[in-house]
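Cross-posting from the modeling subforum.

Setting up a comparison between two proteins and wanted a second pair of eyes on the formatting. Protein 1 (sequence, then structure tokens):
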Amino acid sequence: MTATVTAGDYQVSLSGVPSNCTVSGSNPRTVTVPAGGTGPTTFSVSCTGTQPPPTGRVTGRGQVGTAAPQVGNDAVTFDFDLRADLTGRFTGTDYADVHPGGVPATLTTDPVADPATSIIAFRPSSSVCSDPSRGVEVDATGREDTGGIVAYTLAVCDNGPADSGMDFFSVFIPAEGFRRSGQVASGDIVKS
């Protein structure tokens, strides 16, 4: 990297070094740039093996809404096991969103069973939670019961024990302007 600066002393550092790598020598270090000259420096980086896989997991099974999960009722059920290494599965059913034939809307992500679906990103916190560290956000693509593939974002909060009504669930499908969210009336969300 080259920077054009005035003469003087500058602190230069190498950032973004993976956890399985080390920088030899001082980092940051002082580089003196003389008037009309250059102040070169070199960083030596050595790495071992591969970077460890990301850790983190969130699981959940339960329901938003207190009505029975039957076609036409205001209830959303969910069942998921999602991991920071971008593996896992998700199924959500909205019983109030009834499709032709009386079928409730269902969204499923399971890359093992349906390779057209995928988990794209796993964020180990969520601003929708009163304590962001108790939340997780996941970006994914899933298959709707109609056969279409859509991108969506899942945001969940592990705010308390099972069936406490304190956990939070939200799913948003931007292309459809579809959002369903609320406190988990029954079931549990667990972040680990």
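Protein 2 (same layout):
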Amino acid sequence: MSVRGAAMRAGVIGLVAAGVISGATGDYGDAEDDTNIPISPPNWSFLVWVPIYLGAFVFAAAQALRPWRGDPAVARIRVSFAASVLLSGLWVRTARRPALEVAVVGATATTALIAQFRGARTTPSSPRERNRRRESARTWFFEVPVGLFAGWITLATVVATSQALVEKGLSALLRPRWSASLLLAAGAAGAVVTRRTRGVAYPLTLVWGLFGVAMKERSRTPVVARSAVAAGAAIATAVFNRPRE
């Protein structure tokens, strides 16, 4: 066991733990506050962080185990995933500085999607990865945690960036039609990612967030609710229109 490899694995565990602790202990306020942008999901939808955080810990622990230490598929994603979890924990710490928050949000989304694209490809890349038992374990230990996280972060990025811009004076984003357009953009982006990667974890958490928005806004701003449903439908369609392996 090399010192460099051990340090890398320990670093991944440390980054994930720091991100989860920072994120879980932050004060996010009331997501359903009237001053928030309409595309913000309802409070109950944030329960999705429970499986996301559990998955992050599973990822961090599994990548340090002997069977996965030299696995090239794990090596491709562990740094970007750990960095994205850490950055997500910094969002709440930068909430009072919109410019910095947007930068952190952008970095989080970028690293999360890098991990998603690298770790959830449409086809296995080597005979070793085609071993069914190993492939199944890799899916649950690594691809599912990454997908859960990246899916939620896709929507959260649109929401957090829009909210930060509103706080900087771009109040037009509070208008229903603008909010609806943002949701459609999130749905389009999510559909592209879904179609080009495999697994259901990514689209599942993204659709969960959109479902929450639709339920919250169905009476207050129906156009936003309809856009959330349309975005979710686009993502679901992408799941069934992936290239065959």
